[in-house]
Amino acid sequence: xxxxxxxxxVTLVVLAVLIFGPDKLPKLIQDVSRTLRRxxxxxxxxxxxxxxxxxxxxxxxxxxxxxxKTFVRKHVLEKxxxxxxxxxxxxxxxxxxxxxxxxxxxxxxEPAAPSAGTPDLLKKRENLQPGERPPxxxxxx
Length: 141
What we know:
Layout: H1 6-20, H2 25-54, H3 68-77, H4 84-90, H5 93-105, H6 119-126
C-alpha cells in the first residue's frame, strides 16, 4: 500500500483529524471513496467500450500491452517467431575472426561442427558419383 508504515499512517490520521475536524472527517472519507469508486467504474466502462469497438478478435486485449516494454517482452522476446535467436547468433564474429587469423598465420582451421540437420547431407556429399550435383542444403543458403 504505497510503502506507508504504521507510524506514517498514524501521523496522516492525526493530521486529517486536526485539519478537517472529527465531525467533518467521516463525510470527507465517504466523498473521497465515492469519487474513487466512480473513477474506477468510469475506467472499466471505457476499457469495455474500447474492447467492444475493436471487435471479437481483440477480446483478450490488455491495456498493459500498450506499454512498449511490456509489448516487446510479450510479443518479441517470449515468442521467437521472427528467428531473433538465429539472427543474434549470426552476428558471432569470433569464428570468422578465428578463420582469418588462421589464414594469416598459415594454420589449417579446425573443421566446424555440423549443424543438427547437416550430417545426412554430408554423408550424401561423400558418396557422390563423378559429375553428380551435391544435394541442396536450405540451411546453407
